[in-house]
Structure formats: structure tokens, C-alpha cells
Amino acid sequence: MARFQYVTQIEIDPGAVRLLPQECKAAGIARPLVVTDAGVRAAGVLDIALAALAGVPHAVFDQTPGNPNEAAVRAATAVYLENGCDGLIAVGGGSSIDLAKGVAITATHEGPLASFATITGGAERITAKASPLIAVPTTAGTGSEVARGAILIVDDGRKLGFHNWNLLPRVALLDPDLTMALPPALTAATGMDAIAHCLETFMSGKVNPPADGIALDGLRRGWGHIERAFSDGRTAREARWNMMSASMQGALAFQKGLGCVHSLSHSLGGVNPRLHHGTLNAVFLPAVIRFNAGAESMRKDDRLNRMAHAMGLPHGPDYADGVAVARAVFDMTARLGLPTGLAAMGVGEALFDEIIDHAMVDHCHATNPRLASRDDYRRMLQESM
């Protein structure tokens, strides 16, 4: 059975952040907790959002870590409860939005955070009591503003997914002006995250024709505009708009499922939380694309050629092995100044067994178009060094 659901209200336009007061009212939020991070505050972006909230009582939590964890969820939940908040506004990248989703659970439900994780069977324990959330993304990468899930590191070090439609933001305010000051390196890393979502969800063997169409258009936008956003991001408003759309589209599509790229990046991100998720996705993509080329669903639906076409690459029967698409991703990663291998990120083979252990049980493992074994994961890690 194929099931798909698209329900998020999305506003995408310069100045969309000014809609915050009316969207709070529409969501029934009278006293929000604004969840953000120190970098967003230091860049002055938080001030823009708080100015839009003038007249709306609120509290602020600005200590979201780069990879949100259970300790930060507890700290933010304490601020939420101490201030009598009744809803959340996430202003930031995927980390802040995912942290806010964690608060939406723990502020309204009893039990340890891990008990609500997808792989523990806890998804159905997340009820409509979850705090309402408005998402204001300040990067173009994760797409968490339109996704029903969050990725959080729990106290035992596992990086787990939490998925339920009650976590879906009530509205996503996509204001490309908020991304204009994003540094080039972060523009590159988050942009490759968006491209990874579009590529990997399109490769997934699950049936979801709307997701396929959304992913391919998002890939076209992301691939076509990331270099301009990277090199001229402070003035290239059109490129920023398209990257924000690509990010949103990748996340709308990944309800279809992701795969080995994310199994590996979730796992390694849990082992070493200092590593950027988008950069890890970029590094793992080439090896996974080559591995996936052997999947029956990839050949049957001509998926590699359809991906290559969206990327403006040569395509046809001679390119069905995935080598051309994989090489193009590798070359793009290099042009954007990101690491192209794990060794450059300080990752050695001594970590492989631990990475594989967690990848095998990650919620993205089962939706890869070709089921990976431990040996397959080891080869992909070796090829990504």
C-alpha cells in the first residue's frame, strides 16, 4: 500500500517572517518559546524574528547545539515550563527545529525521550498533545520545517529519529532574506544536505509518485543554484530563494524514505557530534549512488538517467552504472570547498564497526532501494575515505 500526506502550510517569500504574530494566533499560541542557537543570535537574525513578534509575550532558548541532544531538550523544556509557554517557534537551521520538536514531545508527554523514537516503536506514543510549532528556517538544508520527524542524540549516544504527524510544524515561514548572511561554508554544507535529500529520496524503492516529482524539481533547483548561493550569497536573492525551495522540497519528498547515505551520516554523527550532517551526506553520496545503481528499482524506472537529466549531466544507457552522477557529486563537493573524504574529517577505519552497528538499525536503512549488508556498508565507508 502506498500512503502519502502533504499538509503543511508553507509561506515562501522575502519578508515572510513578518507573518509570525498572525500565525501564532492561528495556531492558538499565546506565549511561545523561541528556540534558536547562539550563532543565529550573534548574526542578528534572531533580532529580526523577535522584532516581528513585538507585542507577543515570549521566552527564548538560544543554546541549541550543532547536533541537538537530549540534554538540550531537557534544558529547553525547563525554560518552556518555567515561563508557562503554550507553543514553540523555531528560528534557525535543522538543529533548532529538531530541538523544538523534541521539546514539543517532552513538555507534553511523560517518559524518557528515547521511548518515543521510531526504532523503539515509540512513534505512536506521540499524541496530539504535542506542543504546536511554527518553523522559521535560517538555512537551506534540512527541510525540517516541513517534515514530521526530528533527529536527536539521546543520552546513551545514539542518534535517533522521532516521527509523527503531530510533530509537523503548523506553518513554515520560508524567508530567503534570513539566509543572505549565511557564510559560504555553511551555505555549501546545508545546500548539499538539501541535494542529498532530493537524490536519496528519489532513489528509494518505495512508491510515492508525488515525492518523485517534487524531489526531481528540488534537485534541479538545488543543483542549478548552489554554486551561486555559495559564491555570491549576500546578493544572489534568486539563488537563495531556489535553495530554500530545494531544501523544502527535499523534505516534503523524504517522507518516501531515505537510505544508506543517512544511515551512515546519522550513525557517524552520533559517534562524533562535531561532524556536520550535510557534509557527511555529501561525502557518502558517491559511494551510495554507485551501490544503488545495482538495485532493480533503479534500473526499472531509469532513475539514474532521470537524476542526471535534472542535474544537466550526460545521460543514456552508457551512464546507467551511476559513475557519472557519483563523480558529479564528488566534483561539486570539491568545488564548494567541502571535505571529499572521511580522512579529511578525522575519521579512521577504527570507527567502522561502531558506525556499521548503528547504521544497520537506523530507520533509513530499510528504505534504501538495495538492502545493505555489513560488508556493503564497510565497502561504502572505505570508498568514502
TrEMBL record:
The highest taxon in the source lineage is: Bacteria
The record's annotation in InterPro entries points to:
ADH_Fe/GldA, ADH_Fe_C, ADH_Fe_CS, Alcohol_dehydrogenase_Fe
Q: Provide the Fe-containing alcohol dehydrogenase-like C-terminal domain boundaries.
A: 187-384
**Keyword Repeat set for record:** no
Instruction: Name the cofactor(s).
Output: Fe cation
| Protein family per UniProt | Belongs to the iron-containing alcohol dehydrogenase family.
PANTHER family attached to this UniProt entry: ALCOHOL DEHYDROGENASE, ALCOHOL DEHYDROGENASE 4
Q: What is this protein called?
A: Iron-containing alcohol dehydrogenase
Q: Which organism is it from?
A: Scleromatobacter humisilvae
